[in-house]
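Ops channel
N.P.: pipeline sanity check, posting one input/output pair.
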């Protein structure tokens, strides 16, 4: 005799099979979408895309983004760019203004990221840098966010330029003191890593 519990169990198993099938289908579809992660470092910003099956291509030293060549055989779905901020940072200015050649060198990396946007015309793109003097050369960013807006805990005002959907905030508690105008302002490599909360929110808004 079939009980209601048996019926419910079969429905649950059937739904799980459907969900798994949809997941595999979406995963296979995502493999056709190429994401360029320029100056991507640890790959933290592009990690949600990689985990979802996208073809993520991280370009960072020793592979210089300035030497990126146009490949007419591929179509780029999205571009993430996070050029080094050291020369532009306010912390750097306190130890002496950067030389002109340093600015030219830093801007050449930014320009290379924007060149990739021009030649590939992706569906969406974003360039990230902490709130700093890069705005003198790039103009006003589309948004300035703080890490705790995405449940990371840090402050660190961060700018985004580009063509993208706004990520949905998940405001958390600010648990880490600001290092602004201190000797440890953005002084550690871990401070340059894109926080996971923001990475996930950006991915969900820009699949």
């Amino acid at each position: 005799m079939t009980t209601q519990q048996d019926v419910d169990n079969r429905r649950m198993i059937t739904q799980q099979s459907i969900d798994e099938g949809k997941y595999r289908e979406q995963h296979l579809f995502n493999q056709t979408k190429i994401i360029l992660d320029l100056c991507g470092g640890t790959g933290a910003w592009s990690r949600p895309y990689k985990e979802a099956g996208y073809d993520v291509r991280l370009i960072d030293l020793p592979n210089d983004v300035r030497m990126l060549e146009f490949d007419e055989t591929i179509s780029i779905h999205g571009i993430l760019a996070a050029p080094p901020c050291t020369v532009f940072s306010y912390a750097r200015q306190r130890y002496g203004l950067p030389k002109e050649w340093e600015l030219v060198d830093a801007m050449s990396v930014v320009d290379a990221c924007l060149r990739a946007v021009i030649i590939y015309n992706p569906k969406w793109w974003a360039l990230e840098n902490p709130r700093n003097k890069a705005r003198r050369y790039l103009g006003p960013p589309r948004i300035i966010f703080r890490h705790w807006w995405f449940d990371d805990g840090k402050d660190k005002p961060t700018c985004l330029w580009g063509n993208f959907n706004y990520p949905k905030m998940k405001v958390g508690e600010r648990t880490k003191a600001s290092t602004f105008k201190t000797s440890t302002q953005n002084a550690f490599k871990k401070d340059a890593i894109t926080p996971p909360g923001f990475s996930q929110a950006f991915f969900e808004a820009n699949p």
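N.P.: looks fine end to end. The chain has a mean pLDDT of 84.
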